Task: structure prediction
Amino acid sequence: MMESFDEISLLSGMFPAGVVASVLGVEDFSLDTLMPEEMALVARASPRRRREFAAGRFCARTLLAQLGAAPSAILVGPHRAPLWPSGFTGSISHASGLCVAAIAKTCDVRSVGIDLEPDEPLDGELASALCTPEERRWLAKSADPERWLHVLFSIKEAVYKCQFPLTHELLDFKDVQLDIDASGTFCATAYPAYAATVGRIRGRWRKVAGWLVCAATIV
Result:
């Protein structure tokens, strides 16, 4: 069961200096915070999706303001990725009534990615689709493979969001090899076709009160 928590315990220290991040509840979030251009993007979406979208945009716009950006609509580009104001990069994630966002100036950080998931086991049968052979061997040696599989999945989601603004490639889960440390850090290596663009992507993962959050950064 997911418990109450404070924002600091979830996100503090997840990103390097220059990145600001925040978490916000989605339930009953007002659509009035959306700009007209944003509202048009979710006009046909379900009420729940519209609330998630509104909360994510509000959270991101608040962080952009902290970094000096003027208020503007956050639209979407190819594959529904957010389009950030010139000079900024960011990432948004939603899960089970919460959203998180992380924003930075591109002069400080090239790209960021964030993913939020309920801290629950993931069906072990998904390992063949999500993992490289080396990662599957690592999972097999772990004490709780299905929970570690969810950590691996969430990290790869954050990594893919982080690399996309730079490569504009929809990588396969197996295009990235992870080295996960139980202390809460990871290193992701893209296979040769993408390595020259993104290099090694580093980040952190954390479990708090029934939540799993993963943050990736390219500096």
Notes: The helical segments are 7-11, 36-41, 47-66, 127-130, 133-141, 145-167, 192-198. The longest strand covers residues 200-208. The chain is about 35% helix and 25% strand.
